[in-house]
Amino acid sequence: MFEYTFQWRQAFRALPQMLEGALVTMQISLLSMALGVALAILLAVGRNSKSIWLRAPATAWVEVARNTPALFQIYMAHFGLGSFGIYLSPFVALLAGITFNNAGYLCETFRGALRAIPETQVRAGRSLGMGPIKAFRLIVLPQMFRIAFLPTMNQMVWAILMTSLGVTVGMNTDLTGVTQALNARTFRTFELFALAGVVYYCIAKAVMLGARLLAWRLFRY
Amino acid sequence: MFDTGLSLNDIWFMLKGAGVTLAITFFAVTGGTVMGLAFGVLRSHVSPWATLPLVFVLDIFRSVPLLIQLILANAFQAIAGLQISPFTTSCIVLALYTSAYCTEIVRGAIDAVPPVTRRAARSLGLTWGQDMTQIVFPMALRVGLPSWIGLTLGVMKDSALVLWLGIIELLRASQIIVTRLQEPMLILMIAGAIYFAISFPIARLGGHLERKWQEND
């Protein structure tokens, strides 16, 4: 047992490259969250609408996103769309897969938050002369974001962790992809991935801490 | 799309992959739930400072991507010369991963039982064990079961990642067939349908239980 010398120096020498990868990871997860939130609002409105033509596609999206693995969704974007002659780069496929997943989960979070906002508030807004979109934007949305803030930030951490799946479709610029590329060259699997794990842990903790501080700053009253 | 090279044998191959997915999920969730129950009871009974190391370790499992956990565990067992198969490694990693989430569910569920109820039970002469099994367990089950079902489904979906260790589960099986037939959309749709067929009814059951049990509270 343990006839192995750990070569941590080699891993630490690769740290700058990995941190550059971490930037790409953050970029993908932030983009996927921004797009995911926008789509999730549309989906939540669609799922709550009375028209079946809006409700059915929104429900289908949410159920597929929540009942199949994220990896499957990324595969679908990368390999599946090839059947229609659409070839997405690993970056776009990863982004599309995670955005699809985020939108599905966030939709349910937002729907729960929307249920907590009294119907009468919209009616009050409308009777003050606001249009339906203006009332939604100025009265419902801010309250919804406030209720759903921490769950949304949890989803953000999920999105960061999910970006590690990109390596399975050939992504080589994000943190896991860079680590895997270095691993293929040096075969220091344990050391490199342990370091990558530490970086992921720090990012996840930093995001959660930032979210707590932001929530404390934003929602003091 | 209609003249496909997909044969019944391929479907059978995918279903066998789904069997592997379910087997891994079963072992992981069983192990994870047992550990989660133990840790959860510990966390709700011992002072927060005493369980701080445990909380820290369990938190790592939730803050590091599962793929990296699997790679690390597999590399570690090779370094240590433990001669564990990738299947067992994945089951152990997923069980620990499950236990990290299960601990929180169990603790939350136990904390949801009002302390006065438990004090009443103890003052009626019930022992700690009787209190736990006959008062706390039934009440906590109502709070925790819906989340536990969600966790089980989450682990089932996350188990797709074990393909990186070379285990032929459902997604890897479909990928192998895709490589041969070059009909990615159709085959992945079937894989997705199998995942959906496993996950959706159980998710619905969880949602149903949640709604039904909230009425009585």
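qc> Chain B has a mean pLDDT of 90.
qc> done
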